[in-house]
Amino acid sequence: MHTTITAPEPVVDAPQPTVIHQPVGPRSARQQVPTVVEPTPVAGLGVAPRFCGGWVAPRWAFTGEWVLLHLDSGIAAVNVDGAGIGHAREAAELLGVGSVDWTYPAEILTGDPLALDVLRVVGDWVRDAVRENRPVRLHASSWQQIPPPWSVDVLDSRGKVFDSYFCFTYGEAEQFTVELGIDFDLDLSAGSCEDITISRLVDPFWELRCARRGCTAVLLDDEYGIPDRSPNRRALAAIAADESWRQLDERRWLCPACNAQFRGTKTCTW
User: Fold this and answer.
1) Does the global pTM surpass 0.90?
2) Residue 35 burial (CB count, 10 A)
3) Residue 10, preceding peptide bond in cis (omega within 30° of 0)
4) What distances in angstroms separate CA 180 from CA 112, 162, 176, 194, one per listed residue?
5) Which residue of 4, 28, 54, 74 lies most exposed, with the fewest beta carbons within 10 A?
6) Domain residue ranges of the chain, discontinuous segments joined by +
7) pLDDT tens digit sequence for 171-193
8) Are 198 and 154 in contact (CB under 8 A)?
């Protein structure tokens, strides 16, 4: 007897994209353009591509920018020239902090002073961020100081160090010492062997993290896939630049994924 096994339904945690109609173009030639909208954590708001419309319908095109839409009406809630998809997503997060219910019809929201004030403030924040080519929500610094690591040093017969390994906890250093002892066939239990030593370095190390709030990206070591840590921040900065991280200022860097999200490129010339 053969048993047929069917695959379970895929588990999808995030809301699925939806399609709404976005009003595009001048009032005299207004078009309702079907638009695929990315849901946000804030009910009533969605992220969508920004369109421009011509004076003769049905001419319209994607501008290369992104906008935050009011889902019930399709009207733009936050619409800033040059905004990337990351800016639109951040606008939704910021609008969700307050007490405004964005699922209300546009007619109610446009008559609510609190809603209008929140939209103005968030729009100004996004506009400033776009002008400065950065996210709205940033950490104070990308540099994270790490306590000095433990150095496991392998000594030769003359007591000279010929290889060293860094471990960031004493437990890791101790375990690694035992593993090295097995590899080098050393009798570490005798207590008199000084061929492998453990010592604590003096200077702290650093690692580089993405400056955007909510992003957990950290600069990784290409060979081992673990955070790249060094006492030399300049060396880490050079590696980050080679791996397409973007420096915002002296303290902050954007990872490649966030860098792509926070660049709006206007392509429509109508």
Assistant:
1) no
2) 21
3) no
4) 69, 13, 6, 13
5) 4
6) 18-131, 148-200, 204-261
7) 887 887 877 766 666 554 444 44
8) no
